[in-house]
Design a protein that fits this description.
CATH class of the largest domain: Alpha Beta
Domain ABC transporter: 3-226
CATH superfamily of the largest domain: P-loop containing nucleotide triphosphate hydrolases
Helix content: 40-55%
Organism: Trachymyrmex cornetzi
Protein name: Multidrug resistance-associated protein lethal(2)03659
Distance between the termini: 87 Å
Number of helices: 14
GO molecular function: ABC-type transporter activity; ATP binding; ATP hydrolysis activity
Transmembrane segments: 295-319
Strand content: 15-25%
Shape: elongated
CATH topology of the largest domain: Rossmann fold
CATH architecture of the largest domain: 3-Layer(aba) Sandwich
Length: 390
């Protein structure tokens, strides 16, 4: 066997109670193409690290026969040319180099780069897209001409068309005869692999061909869903704004201004109807038409002023809550352990600070103010009905 693991248990830190991987039993024959699938944080990257012997087994044994090439999930490029990043200090073989860059879909990129594959990249070079970095990262591993290839989701950063060509021409055809273990979330490639290993909570939940797992009732779509549990939502979004604003005065002012705005806006139509119907012309009426007009004008001005105060208070509260939430996230990230960064990719962390924080800034305030206005309006209706029936 190229790879053999028996009763493997592993964890990153000795003092952890639970194992990162548990009861792993796997044997891979030379030339097999194995797909490893599972939810986020199921242990897929740790599984590859065990084979690389970067994660030591606490129990069990592992045997690896052959040279290993590894394509990491997060592409890494050093300061140098694209060619140097692919060769990685190895001797230049023009024929192999041309074939590798072709099957890794890099020829088009070379034509777009100012100096082709001699273009400097990295910290002091030009910036590349995530897909370009992923293709260079995979090309480096493929050029190594190893016996065993470990690929940690190399197709996720490229579009579907390029990914299809990379899988068919590189992973399936060019590397045929090599032992290949592919971690992937792309379900369309599972039919073309020899065997599929399904990981869940650090253990092998199922193993077999696509048809075998299908007959066993394995739902791949459900398995690959994000394992984040749907907690109770109830009032958590609103409570987030209230707690993170850290100012009960501003919340009280916002509530009072909303109540006053609703009250004055409801009073305006009543005053207008009285003026139009000529109620004030009645001799028994204590108000003249001009006085009603003045009251109506005062209500309009009051509504405008109170609305401006409410808007300013609302945006100030939301901005304060957003800043405090961002600062708390940043403090948590800066104090996180190395295991956190090993488990969560940089793209996932940045996504929380960009996309998710953007959603909090754009969607949560609108929902909060709508909820507050509706609640106050309902409260007013209840009070009106209660007093009218007395």
């Amino acid at each position: 066997y190229s790879i053999s693991i028996e009763n493997g248990n592993a964890k990153w830190l000795d003092y952890e109670r639970e194992n990162t991987l548990q009861s792993i039993n796997m044997k891979v024959r030379p030339g097999e193409l194995i797909a490893v699938v599972g939810q986020v944080s199921a242990g897929k990257s740790s599984f590859l690290n065990v084979i690389l012997k970067e994660l030591r087994l606490q129990e069990g044994s592992i045997k690896v026969n052959g040279k290993i090439a590894y394509a990491s999930q997060e592409p890494w490029l050093f300061a140098g040319s694209v060619r140097q990043n692919i060769l990685f200090g190895r001797k230049m073989d023009q024929v192999r180099y041309d074939r590798v860059t072709k099957v890794c879909q890099l020829k088009t990129d070379f034509n777009l780069l100012p100096y082709g594959d001699k273009t400097i990249v990295g910290e002091r070079g030009i910036s590349l897209s995530g897909g370009q970095c992923a293709r260079i990262n995979l090309a480096r591993a493929v050029y190594a001409d190893a016996d065993i290839y470990l690929m940690d989701d190399p197709l996720s950063a490229v579009d579907a068309h390029v990914g299809k060509h990379m899988f068919e021409e590189c992973i399936d055809k060019y590397l045929r005869g090599k032992t290949r273990i592919l971690v992937t979330h792309q379900l369309q490639y599972l039919r073309d692999v020899v065997r599929i290993i399904v990981l869940k909570d650090g253990a092998i939940q199922a193993e077999g061909t696509y048809d075998e797992l299908g007959s066993m009732g394995v739902d791949f779509g459900r398995l690959l869903e994000n394992q984040a549990k749907t907690d109770e939502t109830s009032f958590r979004p609103a409570s987030t704004i209230v707690s993170r604003s850290n100012s009960h005065t501003s919340i009280s002012s916002l509530t009072m201004s909303t109540v006053m705005t609703n009250g004055t806006s409801k009073q305006e139509p009543l005053e207008m109807s009285q003026t139009d119907n000529g109620v004030v012309e009645d001799a028994n009426s204590p108000l003249t038409r001009m006085q009603c007009i003045n009251i109506y004008s005062g209500l309009i001005v009051s509504t405008i002023i109170i609305t401006l105060i409410r808007s300013w208070t609302f945006f100030w509260t939301c901005m304060r809550a957003s800043m405090r939430l961002h600062d708390r996230m940043f403090r948590s990230i800066s104090r996180a352990t190395m295991r956190f960064f090993n488990t969560n990719t940089s793209g996932r962390v940045l996504n929380r600070f960009s996309k998710d924080m953007g959603a909090v800034d754009e969607m949560l305030p609108a929902g909060f103010i709508d909820c507050l206005q509706i609640d106050i309006a309902l409260l007013g209706i209840i009070i009106l009905v209660a007093t009218a029936n007395v």
